[in-house]
């Protein structure tokens, strides 16, 4: 039987340089184990798509059970890099993707159970013999019909502001060097939380329509984690078709502080200030411009009308 060739798509800048260090370790391990591999290093944001398009023409094939499968695409980077690759392969859900998390937050790895220790993640990857189907969200812009695949979550309001603050903070790089990348989201949260205004929001599920006049946090999630390991909905799972939406309305600072404490102890879902919707399909309308984020990538400030559905793709895990 031919050996599986790994095609490593690497963002060396992920996790403020963690990607480069982990790539070195992975190369060493693969060479020692005599596992054949090719590397493709991203040189700029968006380069992932071009690399994937070239590989699609030359190398990548869908997985068919019982047939030889010789070339595996493996992403080494953070959630943002994986998001780009998954979207570049939107039309090819049967081409499996392996993943070695090297970002700051690594929420997808947490959500699907991939180790955030590089050697263990590599061991996990190399022990896989057949791919697993994982549920992703589709975020469809109702006006334009543009569709993005989402690994983790889409946020409007405070979590998007936290993502933007973390992405541009000098502390992120320092905290990543100290292997405390997740804390960059905590420090961004502390500096953004009292600046975020409330905004109106309309939620439509298959059974109800609800309007919020003063929403503050609005996160649609595919699995429990956002913001580098905060379990925003501990009951969500990337192995089911349910989409979980969490909304928190603007409340007094003391009540908010109490809710945040409960969040860290995973006791927040029972709070009267928190609204939770679970459905296989839902629509979210924010009629005034707000900041948004998708898998930690900034969507800028805009009005949102998004329909969420689920879909599946194969991962080598
Ligand atoms: N060579 C590169 N130079 C600059 N940006 C890059 C490069 N390669 C990829 N990118 C972009 O960098 C962005 C962030 O990458 P990624 O999310 O993987 O790392 P991170 O932000 O450190 O991790 P996390 O999302 O877990 O916090 C992505 O949008 C990706 O497309």
Automatic annotation (TrEMBL):
GO terms for molecular function: ATP binding; kinase activity. Coiled coil: none annotated. NCBIfam families: YegS/Rv2252/BmrU family lipid kinase (TIGR00147). It comes from the Bacteria. Pfam families: DAGK_cat (PF00781), YegS_C (PF19279). Keywords: ATP-binding, Kinase, Lipid biosynthesis, Lipid metabolism, Nucleotide-binding, Phospholipid biosynthesis, Phospholipid metabolism, Transferase. Residues 1-146 form the DAGKc domain. Signal peptide: none annotated. This is DAGKc domain-containing protein. The keyword Kinase applies. GO terms for biological process: phospholipid biosynthetic process.
